[in-house]
Amino acid sequence: MSDADRELRVSKIRNGTVIDHLEAGQALNVLALLGIDGSGGEGVSVGMNVPSDKLAKKDIVKVEDRELSQSEVDVLSVISPEATINIIRDYEVVEKKRIERPESVDDVLACPNRNCITNADEPVQTRFIVLEDGLRCGYCGEIVREDEVATHLNVS
Amino acid sequence: MRQDHLISATQLSREDIEAVLDRAAEIDGDMDAWQGRHAGSVLGLCFFEPSTRTRMSFDTAMKRLGGRTIDMGSVESSSVKKGETLADTMRVVEGYADALVLRHPLEGSAKMATEFVDVPLVNAGDGAGQHPTQTLLDLYTMRENAGLDDVTIGIMGDLKYGRTVHSLAAALTNFDVRQHFISPESLSLPRSVRYDLHEEGAQVREHTSLEEVLPDLDVLYVTRIQRERFPDENEYLKVAGEYQIDTDDLERAKESLTVMHPLPRVDEIAPEVDETSHAKYFEQAHNGVPVRMALLDMLLENATSEDGQ
Ligand SMILES: [Zn+2]
What we know:
- The complex is a heterodimer.
- Chain A is α+β, with helices and mostly antiparallel strands.
- Chain A has 2 domains: 16-98, Alpha-Beta Plaits, CATH 3.30.70; 104-152, Roll (SH3 type barrels), CATH 2.30.30.
- Chain A contains 3 helices and 9 strands, in the order H-E-H-E-E-H-E-E-E-E-E-E.
- A 5-stranded antiparallel sheet of chain A has the order 2-3-1-4-5, covered by helices on one side. In chain A, strands 6-7-8-9 form a 4-stranded antiparallel sheet.
- Chain B is of the alpha/beta class.
- Chain B is built from 11 helices and 9 strands.
- Chain B is globular and about 55 Å long.
- The chains are: A alpha+beta, B alpha/beta.
- At the A-B interface, loops of A face helix 4 and helix 7 of B.
- Bound molecules: zinc ion (ZN).
């Protein structure tokens, strides 16, 4: 496979964010985690199981016309700590963001405990404390293991 | 105790617990001496779930400190029925009271409420979450009867949804207490409680039958297994029967065994046990008053000294 073929599959974007070096299989979870489902009209390209030097196989996500904030980026650490994030303007990388493991993840995940106050109609955002190998609801204390995080994304 | 609110037993250190129990003992010795202590103070009772004992116990405790209580009444007749959020209700009631007690059917409700109020707030039960004041009176009862060090306790029944169990197990990690957990597999400890126990270095010893551990126990803490937890009646009857005790069972127990129960009981403890020296559950219920007096006294004291600064 030539480099040109690879370029075709995941084409360059003019403005937006490139999330690279995702663990293979995490691309769709990343989109869910960021609440991107295409309904906003943004251009989204996804490469899955792309050969990589760093990881045996990786996923890559490119989102046009959207620059991820640091808090959005930090959330990715929970499902893919090796990911790299480049902010693109006019085809150029203008910023490389480092993923840091946050102390908490706010307003991104829904608590899997149906009986949690954050699932009631209260003026409160979800807040998960980041543990070594998972997350914990800051309200009811429910624990979500790392491998379960993707299934509790706060997307409708 | 240097806490502003009491939300979870996990927030309590050994020093916190002992301070409350010591003051409770002092109060228990001469309750009338505390009558004028908080004259003029008002405690708001916010019970979003039916409760008789806990509500009355807080009510009595505040009145015995010389204070008064206000009560939002039954949920059916209140603004909650009209769709008001818990956050709004608490913000309004805060203006009427010097401290608040909250019982609510959802887990995490008390924690959320503290984000909307400045007065001290006490969690009197949040769904299957926590019930820390029950734990304080449980510990008081344990200390009086069996001690809190070098003690073996068996906690039996619904360990999954039982908030009194979740609070008690967490608080006991502060003491030299060996904990055994006895329940049907489907009602064993939830992951979050296990996590806290492991974090505290406590060993979780689990059993599906009381038989094998009963002779080792100094304290047996029995909780109710609710019918609603089982898909069908037969399944419930089969399981629940395994976690009931009577005087025959207790023949294999230590003579000094203390039997406790947060009440109300249904048939987990046969009435004949009431007459034995093991039965401490009514004494336990009575301890709710001095213990809650001690806690309210300390929280109100903290709040007043903060205002003065
Ligand atoms: Zn929760």
